[in-house]
Amino acid sequence: MSILTLTLNPSIDHILLTEQIQWNNKNILNSSQVFMGGKGINVAYTLGKLGAPAIACGLIGEDAIKALTRKMEQQGVIVRFAIADDTRHSFKIMDRKNGKDTEFNQRGIPVSSEQIRQLLTIVENSLDGAQWLILSGSLSPGIPHGIYTDLIEQCHQKGIFSVLDTSGEPLKSGLEAKPTMLRINRSELEEIFPGCDHTPAAIKTSFEAIHRRGILYCVVSYGSEGAIGSNGELIWKIGVPSLKPISLTGAGDAMTAGLVASLAKGKTFKESLRFSSALATASTQQLEPGDFFRKDLEYVLQATTIEHLI
Q1: Residues 124-157: tens digit of each pLDDT
Q2: Residue 108: what pLDDT?
Q3: Strand partners, 61
Q4: Cα torsion angle, 153, 3, 259, 66, sign
Q5: pLDDT at 6
C-alpha cells in the first residue's frame, strides 16, 4: 500500500552559501544550489530514499514540473501533480562563519478554483490503495483553509491514516478533523496552546488535550534538543547527538517521513520515534532538504536515546 504526500505550496529553493554576510556591501558566494522544495515534496523525497512506496501529489507550475518529476522518479516516487500558473521561489542565505541563515520566501502563486478541482480529483483517485496521507505545509493563495480538514475526513471514511504538519489556520481547522498523527514543532505547539512553557508538566497537559480530541499520535520536534512523542499512553523524550548542521531545512519533513515509513513497516511507535529523530538529525548533514547518507543515519541512530518523559 502506498504513502501519499500532498504539497499545496511548492517552491524552487535557492540555497546560497557565503563565508560571512557583509551588510551594505558586496557578498561573494562560496556556492549556490537550486532544489525543488515544499514540505510534502521533501517528505516524498525522503520516503523514496527509504524505499517506501510513495506517491507525491500537489500543485506545481509548468516551469518546474519536469525538474520535480526527474527528482522524484530518481527515488522511485510516483508524481501526480496538477499544473498551476507558476511556482514560487525561496532564497536561503547561509553565513558559514556565524552558523546562521536567513530566508526570503514568496507567499505563493494564486490558484484558481479549476486548478483546485483538478488537484482534488488527483488526490481522491490516489487515495484508493493508500495506507497513509501526509498533509504538509502552507497553502497557496486561493486554497481554502479547510482543505486539510476535508481530506482528513475523507481518510476516515476510507480507513486511511492521516498526518497533519502545518501551521496557522490550516492547523487549527485540521485538528478538528482528528488526523491520526499530529507532527509539529515547538512554535506550532504554542499556536495550539498559547503560553505553553514546554516543561514536562505543560507538555503532558498539552498532549493529553490533543489525544482527547481523538488524535492517536502526537510528535513535537525540538531541533537539536530532539523530540517528544506520545501515543496516548506514554510520553517519550528522544535525545539526539550534537552535530554541526550543514542545513536545517527539511529536517522536520525527514522526521515525518521516518515516522510514517517505520509505522507502515509494522514498527512500534517507540521504535518509529527513535528512528525518525535520528533520520531528521542525519538529514542536517546534507544541503538538499530530505536528503541523507546511510552512514550518517547509522551513526546518529546508535547515539540516539529514548526515555519516558513523565
Answers
A1: 999 999 999 999 999 999 999 999 999 999 999 9
A2: 86
A3: 84
A4: negative
A5: 98
Three cell numbers, residue 223:
531541533
What pTM does this model have?
A: 0.94
State the SS3 of the chain: CEEEEEECCCEEEEEEEECCCCCCCCCCEEEEEEEEECHHHHHHHHHHHCCCCEEEEEEEECCCHHHHHHHHHCCCCEEEEEEECCCEEEEEEEECCCCEEEEEECCCCCCCHHHHHHHHHHHHHHCCCEEEEEEECCCCCCCCCCHHHHHHHHHHHHCCEEEEECCHHHHHHHHHCCCCEEEEEHHHHHHHCCCCCCCHHHHHHHHHHHHHCCCCEEEEECHHHCEEEECCCCEEEEECCCCCCCCCCCHHHHHHHHHHHHHHCCCCHHHHHHHHHHHHHHHCCCCCCCCCCHHHHHHHHHHCEEEECC
Q: Give the torsion sign (CA, 272, 168, 69, 30).
A: negative
Of the candidates 93, 84, 87, the residue with the CA atom closest to the CA atom of residue 14: 93
What does the pLDDT read at residue 3? 98
Report d(CA 101, CA 289) in Å as an integer: 15
Residue 154 backbone phi and psi in degrees, to 5 = -65, -40
Q: Does domain 2-308 have CATH number 3.40.1190.20?
A: yes
Per-residue buried b or exposed e for 228-243, using 16+ beta carbons within 10 Å of the residue's own CB: bbbbbeebbbbbbeee
Give 224-263 pLDDT, tens digit per residue: 899 999 999 999 999 999 998 888 889 999 999 999 999 9
Q: Could you tell me the three cell numbers for 147?
A: 482543505
Cell output for 55: 506517491
